[in-house]
Amino acid sequence: MGVERLHHVGLAVRSLDEALKFFSGLLGLEVESTIVVEEQGMRAAWLKLGDVKVELMEPIGEEGPVAKFLAKRGEGIHHIAVNVSDINAISEALREAGIKLVYDKPRVAHDGSLYNFIHPKSAHGVLIELRQEGAAERGFTFLEHTADQYVLAYGPDLRSAFEEAGRALFATMTDLSTVEPKVEVEVEVEGEDVKALLYNWLEALLLKLDIDGLLLSKFKVLEISGPKEGPLKLKGLAWGEPFNPAKHPQYVGVKGITYHLMEVKELPSRVELRFLLDI
Ligand code: CO
To answer: Which residues keep their CB under 5 angstroms from ion ligand 1?
Structure first.
């Protein structure tokens, strides 16, 4: 147990656009993704530097930790992040030794990693992020995209990743926690490959809203099957209730699903789906 390697260095910047001109434009670091991290009050750009990454962090508003850091210290190195194999075990050992961690429990990062920070007071003035990759079992997150909603949904298998994709679709439009699973609907779709299946699954779910006025918040993919050659078939269930403007906050409307930038990554114990919603 212990830290394994450097994962990334987090830099606080006033303007992502300006910082990217330097780090990407002049130094040539490749931009991997740009994301919004609401709970940290920031936008972040992830750049590749060999095996290590650079996280450029720009504050949104005045309240988040990055805004506070900039006000106090100006631009510069904000934290370093190291990989650990078991974040819970190392957190416990550190706490036993009297080391202070920032959060009581690890949080889920945009890529499904779990992370926490060692307080700089306990770490010789350095804010150290502990990061266990691929530890979050399932979930979804919104990656930044100029005009549309770009989603990453993931899970330990294809079925759970499809369920998370359904949740992400409706979480774009409303607060899922306000949608009670009162009505059950069956969904059956086909697709010539996983991408087509994902497209058709999301479109079928969206039609439940457009045609039947149903908001959905809970999804169960019962089976995904198909012959070696020939279309894949998906059977699933979804639960929700009729849209009620007094009860369900309206975020943005989804006009349609697109194939543009769609990506399916099937890793040994994890499936990642990326897709763009036309809003
Ligand atoms: Co970080």
So the answer is: 10, 55, 81, 129
